[in-house]
Design a protein that fits this description.
binds ligand 37G; mainly alpha
Length: 229
């Protein structure tokens, strides 16, 4: 019941998702450098910067995205970057990396100057994503659906975004039914994670403020995408 064009669409998105990854030499840095709050912050900043570059390349491969209004493309990327990075970094926790990157990433996030009130919901979210045991198609589509959220700030033609998002939602719904026939609520559970992502995105804005209060510097790309400095 998945049509031929839906199969093609799925392949394009999954190929783009698996092609655009943080380069291994950048990811490996998580393991090398020493541990201090400042060192952790610097490494995480490097990760986030690399992740944003990967995210932009992935987004350009979403069928229909480049035909949207140019300013709306930017508004969608700025509005979804944090949420997409939560989903992407959650995969690191799901994968149980052989080289122990998972533990190291958790350690560095916990000790990078983020206050406990944000750490708790953040790692609850990571746990909830890991427990879903999503397959790559689901991860790629959920990230795509997050990016194509019509009601981000400053999006002018929300209809145009909605049309593409609906195509992706329908495809994900079908996939969930096929993938988990014994779990009819699974699609709804995936969408529930998107609601949790919005909350985390609000926490994240406060995290940025508290880092900046402690005079932490971000890279030009992060300043641009997060409207800081
Ligand atoms: C500016 C800094 C301090 C920041 O601010 N908020 C957040 C932040 C935090 Cl602390 C949590 C969630 C989202 C954000 Cl933006 C961050 C750090 O963001 C990231 C982003 C992405 C990775 C990340 C992704 C993939 C992989 C990967 C693989 O795929 O093989 C291997 N290693 C990975 C590392 C880590 C940290």
């Amino acid at each position: 019941e998945i049509t031929k064009e839906q199969r093609t669409l799925m392949k394009v998105i999954v190929d783009a998702y698996s092609t655009h990854q943080i380069p291994q030499d950048v990811a490996k840095k998580l393991l090398q450098e020493q541990y201090s709050a400042d060192e952790n912050f610097l490494l995480l900043t490097e990760m986030a910067t690399s992740q944003v570059q990967v995210l932009v390349e992935f987004t350009k491969n979403i069928p229909g995205f480049l035909s949207l209004d140019r300013e709306d493309q930017i508004a969608l990327l700025k509005g979804s970057a944090v949420e997409a990075m939560f989903l992407r970094s959650a995969q690191v926790f799901s994968r149980k990396m052989p080289s122990g990157q998972t533990e190291v990433l958790e350690e560095r996030i916990r000790k990078s100057g983020i206050s406990e009130e944000f750490i708790i919901p953040m790692f609850n979210f990571y746990k909830s994503i890991v427990s879903l045991h999503m397959v790559q198609e689901e991860q790629a589509l959920l990230t795509t659906i997050t990016i194509l959220t019509p009601d981000r700030p400053y999006v002018k033609d929300q209809q145009a975004v909605e049309r593409i998002q609906e195509t992706m939602l329908e495809l994900l719904r079908k996939l969930c039914v096929l993938q988990r026939p014994q779990e009819p609520q699974y699609f709804a559970r995936l969408l529930g994670r998107l609601t949790e992502l919005r909350t985390l995105s609000h926490y994240h804005a406060e995290m940025l403020t508290s880092w900046r209060t402690n005079d932490h510097k971000f890279t030009p790309l992060l300043c641009e995408i997060w409207d800081v400095q």
